Amino acid sequence: MNKLRQFKRPHLLIVGCGDVGMRLLPLVRQRFRVFALTSSSERCAELRRAGAVPIVANLDQPATLKRLAGLAQYVVHMAPPQADGQLDLRTRRLAQLLPSGGRVVYVSTSGVYGDCAGELVTETRPVAPRNARAQRRVDAERVLRDWAVRSGAQLAILRVPGIYAAERLPIKRLEQGTPALLPSDDVYTNHIHADDLARIVALALFRARPGRVYHAVDGCHLKMGDYFDTVADAFGMPRPPRLARADLQAQVSPMLLSFMSESRRLDDRRLRQELGARLHHPDIGAAVAAMALAQ
């Protein structure tokens, strides 16, 4: 009987079942028969233990994806684009296999907005990506919107900022003494705890309005240097040195500099009012302090 109920449950496919996907599985495995796409056969046992049916395939190898066609009416797409180019070829391949009339939650990035000079950003703000990494995300969003319109499916897009958790803090950066910007040059940054992001994804599967964009964010408006100081203080580490932007450019990688060149504050009202999200970690300072005490 248990096996019969299992097969009667709706099917959910998680594409990109990494850290956040593993946190999502306990929230959905009672409601769905969950399939998890992995490119590594070595992860199959881990995924089975977590309650998912592993599907070994690779978004970079189209011939391996045939089994995905029509597999699930619900899809959570968390796989990042490939590392180069302006088009997200992985999402383009996946979109060809998605079911008509289904429901998809796509986990995108707040980087699609580019630099907003510290302004408060709502989901209706036009995208303005400043690098190829963000442009690929914009492409993925457009591809999925087009697919949803053609197929009559329901799509929700979650734009996600920096994800943190106990094992996802900038400890190594602090140990290396990587500098941060002077307060006068610093940028606003946004965060979400990995557990809260998993909960938001689960809520979006049932509560998101069709075609809607949501900011998956905790609502704390910290500048980047203040975030590093918060982590340093909690773990008893030296705060990073502060430099002017002109001096910092010679000491950090181009990718890190790109993150330190975009300033925005993400509005979280739609997340709270429409999805009814109640975060377990609404205050990043309190969350980081608790992580330090738990060590």
TrEMBL record:
Species this chain originates from: Massilia soli
Domain NAD-dependent epimerase/dehydratase span(s) in chain numbering: 54-214
Stated name of the protein: SDR family oxidoreductase
SUPFAM superfamilies: NAD(P)-binding Rossmann-fold domains
